[in-house]
Design brief:
single chain; mainly alpha; Helix Hairpins; two-stranded antiparallel ribbon; 8 helices; 2 strands; about 80% helix
Length: about 425
């Protein structure tokens, strides 16, 4: 069967698929075959966990295709719109030129008609002035005895008047010709300007149409290029999505594997800590029971010996009487206020009455010690009643009990 793992030149075991290091305690396996088998087993477990932990990614929907006009049709539509605007602008300019020319020619025609009218009036005025002057001269001549028709002098005078009038008519006619020529010149100039403006508009139109055609080609090319770039971007986005989807699946698998591993480690650590705590607790409970039993036995024996020695020393009792006295003494002791058990009870009653305040009287250490030693568990008594004791009382009781009875550091049991 082909193996999915191998050992690199540094001695690490790796899987062939992802080149991932497979770590395990190699000291537990002697031969190389056993180590390779362990690495293969761990890799098989990893593949199972990865397969179960890899989420199913939803595929992207099918990319929609563009259903609008193609680049050539869009370019033609844009060019038609530009041509329409250029034609409209050119026609507007030509109409303006025609209207301006018509207005100028109309004004010049009116000016020409006015010049002719003024010249006619001027010729008529010259004629009237000539006639009036001639008639006045003839009247003067008749009064002077001249014959206006055959007198040389009279004819000469009348000739001067006619010559003057002819000159005025000639000047008026020349002015008329000059004015009409000027109007004709301006008519020609207006037509020339209109023709030039029309040519300029046509040239502008041709230039604009040529530019629009070039822009239409660029516009269509830009649309095609933009769509090409969009398709490239879509392809890259899809590629990135596929890559990120794959990396997310791998990351999820690694995270799940790490979670499972950490959970196993945490569970093992918790179970081990619980085992240690339970073992230490049970051991301490058993030792406390032994210590309590030893202390109580010693205490009872000390009390019994003290009563017996007291009775014997007085020589008042025989052996039988001594036993009877001992029983009576024991009963009296059980009711005596000096009994540590009774003192303990009284001290607890006093402590409850005075809860919140600690005694500072040094004479209370003795009764407190007796109450503590008469309890079934002196350590528990100390811990329970420490809140009612002063620091001096507490330290004294610690030293008296731990050093004199158990011969150990008084603060060990409080840690």
């Amino acid at each position: 069967m082909a193996s999915d793992v191998y050992k690199d030149k540094w001695g690490n075991y790796r899987d062939k698929a992802t080149d991932r290091v497979i770590a395990f305690d190699e000291s537990k396996y002697k031969t190389e075959d056993e180590k390779m088998a362990k690495a293969q087993s761990d890799y098989d477990d990893y593949k199972v966990r990865t397969k179960k932990s890899t989420p199913v990614q939803e595929e992207l929907p099918v990319m929609p295709e563009y259903a609008g006009l193609d680049a050539e049709a869009l370019s033609k539509a844009w060019l038609d719109k530009m041509k329409s605007g250029i034609d409209e602008s050119a026609n507007s300019q030509l109409n303006t030129i025609k209207q301006n020319l018509a207005d100028a020619l109309s004004a010049l025609e009116g000016e020409k008609s006015g010049i002719q009218t003024n010249n006619d009036k001027l010729l008529e005025q010259i004629h009237n002035n000539e006639f009036a002057t001639s008639e006045a001269q003839k009247e003067v001549m008749n009064q002077s005895g001249w014959n206006p028709t055959n007198s040389g002098l009279a004819i000469g005078e009348l000739g001067k008047t006619k010559i003057g009038a002819d000159k005025e008519r000639a000047d008026a006619n020349q002015a008329l010709v000059d004015a009409l020529n000027d109007v004709a010149r301006r008519v020609t100039l207006a037509n020339t300007h209109a023709s030039n403006d029309t040519a300029n508009v046509k040239n502008w139109k041709d230039t604009q149409l040529t530019g629009a055609e070039a822009q239409a080609l660029l516009y269509g090319d830009q649309i095609g290029y933009d769509r090409y770039r969009d398709s490239v971007a879509d392809a890259l986005n899809q590629q990135n999505f596929d890559y990120n989807k794959e990396r997310d699946a791998v990351s999820d698998a690694w995270n799940q594997q790490n979670f499972d591993y950490n959970k196993d480690v945490d569970d093992r650590n918790f179970d081990y800590e619980k085992f240690l705590n339970d073992r230490n607790y049970n051991y301490q409970v058993s030792r406390d029971k032994v210590t309590d039993a030893q202390w109580l036995s010693q205490f009872n024996e000390q009390q019994r010996q003290a009563l017996v020695n007291e009775a014997i020393s007085r020589g008042q009792l025989s052996v039988s009487e001594g036993n009877l006295a001992l029983n009576r003494a024991a009963q009296a002791w059980s009711q005596s206020p000096n009994n540590p058990d009774n003192k303990y009870k009284n001290a607890q009653i006093d402590a409850l009455k005075n809860s919140g305040s600690k005694s500072s009287n040094e004479n209370t250490v003795g009764p407190l010690y007796n109450s503590m030693m008469s309890s079934s568990d002196p350590e528990a008594w100390l811990k329970e009643n420490s809140k009612y004791l002063t620091n001096d009382e507490l330290n004294t009781l610690y030293n008296l009990y731990y050093k004199s009875i158990n011969n150990k550091d008084p603060y060990d049991s409080l840690n």
